[in-house]
Amino acid sequence: MTERPTLAVTVGDPVGIGPEITVRTLAEVGASASARGVVVADPAVLRRAVQVCGLDVEIRTVSSWDLPPEQEGVIDCYDIDVLGEQELAWGVVDARAGRAAVRAIEVATKAAMDRDVAGIVTGPINKEAIWAAGSKHLGHTEMLGELTGVTRQTTMFVVRGKKIFFGTRHLSLRKALDQINEEQQVAVINEALTALRVFGDDEPRLAVAAINPHGGENGAFGDEEIVHLKPAIERVRATGADVTGPVPADSVFHQLLQGRYDGVLSQYHDQGHIAAKTFDFHGTISVTVGLPILRTSVDHGTAFDIAGKGLAEEGTMKSAFLHGAEFSHFADRIRAEYGS
């Protein structure tokens, strides 16, 4: 690997906004970031995105991760040779686009597993398109799990350096509450602490968000804090870990921003999402924890309704790329902790 780490960047669905936000990001920060980005795609997809965005940059096709010196105004593209020069309709579910999205993920992941790159940065895919292409996976997470041989993955949100974890995610609130118990809390607290250490917080301070208003008011508004959360926190604290809580959710995220903690464990999907995205919608990115490789990602969809119009906001992709550049220096830690 070159002295300056390389990140493999996938555009996601080539007829969504992924190509636009990718070329905007690399045109803006690709030459100055602490890691270099190589886009994994068909070069024609990037050339079309450059034209749509009105950028004065060159797309250079490469066939090796051992790159020549980077030039200002050049975006390197590792050619996956799926679409060739085909121009697919913007914003339409298409199996050909799905195949290109899947192939890019496969190529980028293999490069990371082979240590040709320090990590991957992923753009948004369209689930219908990848299913039309024959993929059996629900999305990125499941695909990456199979490609890396991992069965347990979690999500870490990063927003301006602050980290948010999720005790439960894609469940109804009622089902999420049913999943929460003492043993489950011990497991997710320890996962969050491990991730904080892996990603640079050597002596992590974690706060556990309460579930109920005012943290339950000693059982007046619910007993989950008494029955499940407090016993779990006490067990983990007994090992010497710096864990605080349960902290009422209406104050814990403010305290995170004030620097009292390095991370917060939110208890359900929207509890953490609302806090992060209200603070900085375009700056909130997702890191997949548990993979033996670094993977940062945008946390939005393909926005088919504006694809191809040059209107897409690249802030989240830029944040994902810059955080990937920062975290690329922990690639060995990630491999050591989560590798087989």
TrEMBL record:
InterPro entries: PdxA_fam (IPR005255). The keyword NADP does not apply. Keywords: Metal-binding, NAD, Oxidoreductase. GO terms for molecular function: metal ion binding; NAD binding; oxidoreductase activity. SUPFAM superfamilies: Isocitrate/Isopropylmalate dehydrogenase-like. Gene3D superfamilies: Isopropylmalate Dehydrogenase. PANTHER family: 4-HYDROXYTHREONINE-4-PHOSPHATE DEHYDROGENASE (PTHR30004), D-THREONATE 4-PHOSPHATE DEHYDROGENASE (PTHR30004:SF6). NCBIfam families: pdxA. Belongs to the PdxA family. PdxA2 subfamily. This is 4-hydroxythreonine-4-phosphate dehydrogenase.
